[in-house]
Amino acid sequence: MSIIKYNAAFDLLHNNALNLPKKFAFIDDNESINYFDLQEKVKSLSKSLLKLGLNQGDKVIICMHDCINFPISFLGAIWSGIIPVSINTMLPKQDLKYMLEDSGAKAIICSEDLLNNFIEINKELNKDTLLLVNVRKKSIENLNCLNINNLFNEDTKDHLPAITLPRTECFWLYSSGSTGKPKGTIHLHESLINSAKLYAKNILAIKENDIFFSAAKLFFAYGLGNALTFPLSIGGTSILTEARPTVDSVCKIIKKNSVSLFFGVPTLYAAMLNSKLIVEDFQSLRLAVSAGEALPEHLCNKWYETIGCNVLDGIGSTEMLHIFISNSVKEIYPGASGKPVPGYEARLIKDNKKEASVNEIGELEIKGPTSAIAYWNKPEKSKSTFLGQWTRTGDKYTKNKLGVYTYCGRADDMMKVSGQYVSPFEVEAVLQSHNSVIEVAVVGARDKEDLLKPKAYIVLKEGILACKELEQELTELVKATLTPFKYPRWYEFVISLPKTATGKIQRYKLRNK
Ligand code: 3UK
Question: Cβ(293) to ligand 1 under 6 A?
């Protein structure tokens, strides 16, 4: 049997550099880059990483705002068989520190404003992890790090991609759970290419002339597919921005760049539809995608009525890399996730391990060629999530007689807020640390758009009075300790929390209030 060499970075770059050398691959806030130059810079950085002492199989953390140097770093590592570990730029320092230790990364590539965090972490851990910084303005002389922009001058002519196979480990993403630390999710070379083939080509019918813009950043699995893998898989153009995805920034980008494919999360669609949109700004748009949490039916319908193009809701996960059940232009079921994307199989498993029948609730498991193979260094969690060919999603779903899947909530305690995981326990732990608080329970409650947001039920110490100032203080505490969007949107001060005879908080009673 012959071994077929297969490198995802080569696969995404080579043909485009050859056939569309002058075409723009990426446009960011400051510059643009064509496919020829993109491949040159990827190869140059790839060679530099090897020269700096990194080897095939080593990990490199990428903690960077969306800009052209992100894909260059991500693909540059993969070209050399180095494993990029993209991490959330908004994480508090203790999480960054955990990820650095857990991954054992040999180097960190980061944005300039995130550098200080990593310098401090290096000191605290007594490490000298190599720091490569995307220097823009400030001078970093005297600091113990290199400017990544000085690593693009290598002779790249003979720099071939590392010899890797379709199922060689390729990159990691971190996924969070209700308890415990974030889990390094290990993905293979073929998963990148398969997600583009199965979902983007078949469901979105992506074409070379598409202009992609993702409100979800590149460090999310969702953003990585939308703004990197998918556009490169067909020689399209991707718009990157460091700006926070607000209604204003997103609308401006769509208009300015004639975006044809837009990827957002339900909270953003709700905010857009609640503001005065100028419909003409969206003329170039042919399709919108929503994921991260369920898109309520009214938002799906209102988007179509207002903008005149469809928004396709689909469910994806970090473990499955991208979307595996989706609506499609030919079959839209507002309020539902749709049907399995061809190439994926889905099943719903009941508590008794049997498959659910029509309209019965079961826990969703997925089989398909984009699944991660394991969590790094978490054998128990890996065993309970990756069941041979099937991957557990932790979601409850029903399937109707047409084969359409409808989301019924998480099977664990996690919440999806603005498309991102929030563990009620981590928010509770922060609130609990406030000296006015005796007990607290955090659950998901619905806002006026029918989207889930954290709500805190709090028992105060005797003599402490509930007031707006206290709520503000608690909010500030959560924002300062965790990723800011996790703060409770509502507080309810109660005498006691509902509990079982054994003292466990009965969250379901609070959820249904
Ligand atoms: C939930 C949804 C209902 C669901 C993601 C698109 O969200 C992504 O990945 P995460 O690992 O979270 C996965 C979990 O989020 N979810 C996502 N989309 C939907 N629930 N309807 C939806 N449309 O609980 C799932 O298990 O953060 C989304 C592409 C790639 C992704 N990684």
Answer: yes
